[in-house]
Structure formats: structure tokens, C-alpha cells
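Chapter review: from sequence to fold.
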Amino acid sequence: MAEAAAAKDGVPGTLSPAYRRYALTILVLGYTSSHVDRNIMGILLEPVKADLLLTDTQLGFLSGIAFAIFYATLGIPIALVADRGNRRNIIAWAIAIWSGMTAVCGLAQNFWQLALARIGVGIGEAGSSPPSHSMIADMYAPEERASAMAIYSLGVYFGVMIGFLVGGWVAVWYGWRAAFFVVGLPGLILALIVRYTLVEPPRGGADGIAPEKHDTPLNFRTGRVIVKEGFSHLWRTAAARHVVIGVTITSFVGYGGVMWGPAFLIRTHGMSIGEVSTYLAIMVGIIGGLGAYFGGRLTDKLAARDVRWNTWVVAWAKIAVVPFIVAFYLTDNWPAFYIGNHGVSILWVIYIPMAFLGAFYLGPSFAMIQTLTPPAKRALASAVMLFIINIIGLGFGPQFVGILSDFFNYTLGMGNQSLRWALFGTAMLNVWAAAHYFLAGHHLKKAGSAGHRA
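The C-alpha cell string follows.
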């Protein structure tokens, strides 16, 4: 497949449309694999809790901070290398590492062993998204970028779908340890596909910009200066600053909901692991995937008329989803409707717009950060953004929900209702995120697509 491209590694040229579609598909598969391995903990929290005798706070650590702290921190130095070196090779090694460590999770006999294995998964995944974002930005022009990033972001929803569906049913049939083996090991094959079928796209080619030369050698001192400049760029560019804050709050809510959603449905509504894994796989994977794709396409279409829609599409989606959040978390005893002889709770019907609208944000957010950043620093900008959103969102989102649930349970005596109120309170932060996306659009209008310097 590498021959389908008109450019070889490091040689400027034009990538064929067929190759670009193939490369994007492979990168989506890599992103999907990362989210399978990252999110499988969500469907396995209850059996892991019962087997290893863990608290919700410990489960929040395993599904959040244990993974996120190394994932987010190592992403920045890896991005520095990616902005100067071969992004394809970095992605291939990353997939191999996180896939192997996911399988190792199935061998854990106690909390600390599982925590170390989860740290290993985070270390591997640190090398995936920043170079992938950079490669996609170099394959697709700015007017196509939100759509391309939206397609890439489908990996989140496909990953959750596969992780929940396969992980949940394998856990039912063979136990939670087998689930880690089943989802982890296939990633080793994908790593080989990335290494031997993808090529390195010319930097800046999609923007019509000649690649910048890096005259300064990369070491600790220069790396520190470059990283500082990366943080400074995202802070001083007002539109980028508000996008990062908005996507961070959204990730805080989203990771908490994804990790604890299955446990909420099992504890509060008495559903089985199999039932929850099937329905959530459909809702998050299919409905969420459609929402991510539609959100990116709608953004590209509306932004062609008014640049503010690059972020306003996300803002309005967040406002529109609030009534459904209230209904989903605070209403009990939903009646069922029947498909043939099978009853389906209206609870799942309420979840459809939550999954669809909640998925709008990824493609436009990723695309705006790439568009507002010079080509030679795009992997770094992506890594800085991911550092922020993953330390706060992935690291503390599930942890916050777990701590809040334990507080409501042990201090206020709420019992099985504690998780409901922890998730509802966290979900309402979507309104705060919407405000930042509105502000980002305001600054885009003031300064055009180049962003506004505060």
C-alpha cells in the first residue's frame, strides 16, 4: 500500500486520495485500539471490584490517574521527537507497547499490580495521538481538516463499543482477566501494519508551506524552551485557549461518565453486565460515532460561511444535551417498549441524544488546534492539549466521580444512589464547557482563521 503514495518517506510529493483514505483508516484503527484498551476498565469495574476487593476510590485511580499521569506527561517529549522525526515509526511502537501491557493487566493479582500494568498502557498510548494528529493535518487541507479529524475521532466511539461489547461478554463467559487478553493481543498485528504500510507525509504540504528546518539540536535545554513555547502559544492564542479549556471540561465529564456509566446502570437500575455492555456498545459506538462524524461535517459546512461555527457547533450541542442529562440521571422506573418479545427501557431512548450530541466536540476541537498552530509544531501543540485534557479530564474525571460517590455513600448514607448523584453533578459541567466554546468562536471572528492574540 505504501506504493500508492506519490511520496516516499521524507520526500515531498503529493499523496494520492486513495492513499490518504487508507492512511486515515489505519490511524483510526490505531486510535480505536487505544480506546479499547483504555476504556475496557469501565465495563470491568464491578467484577474487578468484587475479585480484588477494591473501593470506588481505588477503581477511580485505576481507570483515571494510573493511566493518565504517564500518558499525558510522556506525550510531550514524544511529540518533540515526532515534530523532528518519523511519526509513523513512533505510532507503531506505541501500539505495540500499549497492546502488550493491556494483556499484562489480565495477570494482575492485586491493586498495585493492576495499577502498574495500567501505567504501562498509558506509557504506550502517549505516543499515539500527537503524531497522528500531525500526520492527518499534513494530509488534509484546512477546509477538510475538521471532517478528517472527526473521522479520526471515531476511534473513541468504536473503541468504547468494542471494549464494552467484547470486554463485557468475554467477562461474562470467561472472566475479567480473559477480557484483557482478548482485546490487547490483536494490537501487536496492527503495529506491524502501521510500520510497513504507511509513509511519512511531507510536513506543511496540505497548507502549501515548505517544511521548516530544525537547526537547533534537540536536548533537555532546547526541549524545555520548545515545550514552554508550546504552552505559551496555546495560552496567548485566545481561540485556542478557550478550545483547550472547553475540551478539558468536556473530557472531565466524558471520561467520568464512560468509566462509571456501566457501574451506575448495574447498581442503580439492576442491569446485568451483558445487558449493559450490549446497549452501551450500540449507543456509544454507533450513535456516538455518527455524532462525531456529523459534528465534523456540520462544522466544516457552517464554518465556510462564518468562522465562528468552528466552535459554536460544539457549544450549541452542549446546551441542547442538558435536558436529556437531567432526564437520564434523575428519573426512575422508566417504562419499556417492546421490539418483538424483547422489552427495551425508554432510558436507552433518552441516552441516544446524549451519545449523539455529546460526540460533536472531538473533530472540531482537534482541527482548530492544528489549524491555529504552525505545521512544524503541530505534534507538540496536540501533545500539550492532550497533556492538559488528560491530566485533568482522564486523570481526575473518573477519580472525582469515585471520590464523590464514596463521599455520598459513606458520609451521607446514599447507598446505591451515591453514584447517580456523583455522575449527574459532574455532567452538568457541560454548561461551563459550552461557554468557552462560544468565547472561542468570538475570538475567531475578531481575528479570522489565524486566531486572536490576547
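Two observations follow directly from the output. The CA atoms of residues 169 and 274 lie 6 Å apart. The two ends are 45 Å apart (CA to CA).
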